[in-house]
Amino acid sequence: MKTKLASFGFPVFLASLLLSLASCTTKSHLIDPVVTTAAGQVEGLPNAEGTVTSFKGIPYAAPPVGEFRWKEPQPPLPWEGVRDASEFCASCIQVKQGSRLPWSEEFMVQNDISEDCLFLNIWTPAETADDKLAVLVYIHGGGFVEGSGAIVTYDGEELAKKGIVVVTINYRLGVLGFLVHPELTAESPNQAAGNYGLLDQIAALHWIRENIAAFGGDPGRVTIAGQSAGAMSVQALTASPLAKGLFHGAITQSGTSYRGFSLMTTMEEAERRGLEYAGAKGVDGLAGLRGLSAEEILKPVEGQAGMGRFSTVIDGYVLTDDYRSVFAQGKQNDTPFLTGMNRDELRYGGERSDEFYQLYLPEADGDTALALKAAGQEYSRLNACLWLEHRAVTAHTKGYVYYFDQAIPWPEHPEFGAFHTGEVPYVFQTLKALDRPWTETDTLVADRMSSYWANFAKTGDPNAEGLPVWNAFDGNTWEVMELGADMGMIPVASSETRLNFLREQLLATE
Questions:
Q1: Whole-angstrom Cα distance, residue 211 to residue 35?
Q2: For residues 153 and 426, what is the distance between their CA atoms, to the nearest angstrom?
Q3: Terminal C-alpha separation, the chain
Q4: In 3-state terms, what secondary structure has residue 239?
Q5: How many Cβ atoms from other residues are within 10 Å of residue 37's Cβ?
């Protein structure tokens, strides 16, 4: 364009002016950056290209502090005027470690932490509030003790460019998010305690249902997605009666399988651990616990590692039974489902019998380590497929399985391979957030993966023209979608004999 303008004799400054005006015209197509929510107005920030507007640090619930510590989230407090939504607000209270390899700084919380942390972030490419774009709500991982929707690899701008509204959320973690104590059970109108982090997620989904249309989103097309503990959260929401009707698709990255993620703590066990925790903190009951500062809550109990580590519990309210039982009874929130694992995050969990060595050692040239690695890869693929087989008995929606095997290029640490969480920058197309020697292959993998996730959010099916075909699981052809340098359907196991052997291992009485 500049060359053409110069050939007609336009001054350089006029050419620049026209380009500037064109840029402004592009930006004017975005939704008004001042949006009205039920609690007040927020002002977001359009990106430089004028393709996506971000709204960060929007409170979806009241601060869970003081008397509201260890209670269900309350409605957000209204505010007057226009709230600045250009920057992230605090992440939830946790032990900040900066980095912990293989999770470098880009995968970990770097911003401030606070007990006042129930915020969500929105990236929208909408031009008007009437666009009704599909919505992808992403729940961060971190073992239910760390993480945040503000982590740089979860930045939703690039994914939103695929034509969807992207939302990330914070939720209470660790003791503050999942403590169970007999006094908490007694004071609850539902006779339930714990799962406050899950209740936060449900509150965020209620907020989205009530407010997302103002940001150009469609409250009738909401997909929840998450990785690790976020994936386990998504799995829990598919089983929770409290989440009914709040979402219409589910994606779990490294957090769903037939064996290994299905069992949860009982109330009796959780209450016992809660009493032990209070005793270790040297306080008298619930009042004493609520009197502790957040810093005192976080402080480790000397000589009792893991004392403050709590997770989901079958409380009869948020979760009524273990996942397998809920699905077996057909009581789940039945939506299209996409799930998978990474190549180098799981190990073989079955018996090392003579049959195992006969099946795996020859192909590994007698190397036991290589044999176990190959078995682990097939074991994890089958584990995910068995869950889809289990859900298919009562589900009326399709399920899709992937196997991610693209290792982040990392010359200093090639040993990590396709590690746990390593797929996240590809899903969000946030490769630029990490200083790595990226290749054209990495860029292509990220473009395709983010397209699959966006397509699934739009239609409940990851497929679209121009992408390798991803077949839904049908219980007859035991295949999964390989996502990496090579993309396409691959067998769960290299032979039917191996498949049957691993199936016996996974279905054996636990």
A1: 10
A2: 9
A3: 68
A4: helix
A5: 22
Tokens of 78: 């209204």
For the ranges 25-29, 343-347, 431-435, the maximum mean pLDDT occurs at 431-435
Token pair 């004493």 in the structure block, residue: 288
- Give 509's pLDDT tier (boundaries 50, 70, 90): low
Q: Is the pLDDT assigned to residue 59 strictly greater than 70?
A: yes
Neighbours of 508 (CB within 10 A): 10
Helical (H) or strand (E) element with 79: none
Omega into 46 within 30° of 0, i.e. cis?
no
**CA–CA distance, 88 with 241 (Å, rounded to integer):** 31
The CA distance from 302 to 438, in Å, is 43
User: Which of 420, 423, 450, 451 is the catalytic position?
Assistant: 420
The three-state (H, E, C) secondary structure of 311-352, written as one string: CCEECCCCCCCCHHHHHHCCCCCCCCEEEEEECCCCCCCCCC
Q: Dihedral of CA 404/405/406/407: which sign?
A: positive
Catalytic residue among 54, 91, 148, 228: 228
Alpha helices (runs of H) in 131-181, residue ranges in sequence order: 157-160, 174-178
The C-alpha atoms of residue 9 and residue 401 are separated, in whole angstroms, by 58
Catalytic residue among 115, 146, 183, 345: 345
CB of 306 within 8 A of CB of 369? Answer: no
Find out whether 56 and 88 touch, Cβ atoms under 8 Å.
yes
For residues 74 and 134, is the Cβ–Cβ distance under 8 A?
no
The C-alpha angle 448, 451, 453, rounded to 5 degrees, equals 115
Burial 414-429 (b: 16+ CB within 10 A, else e): eebbbbbbbbbbbbbb
10 pLDDT above the threshold of 50:
no
Does the annotation mark 345 as catalytic? yes
pLDDT band at 368 (very low <50, low <70, confident <90, very high): very high
In terms of Cβ atoms closer than 10 Å to its own Cβ (0-12, 13-18, 19+), residue 354 is exposed
Question: Which tokens sit at 74?
Answer: 């309350």
Q: What is the mean pLDDT of residues 431-448?
A: 96
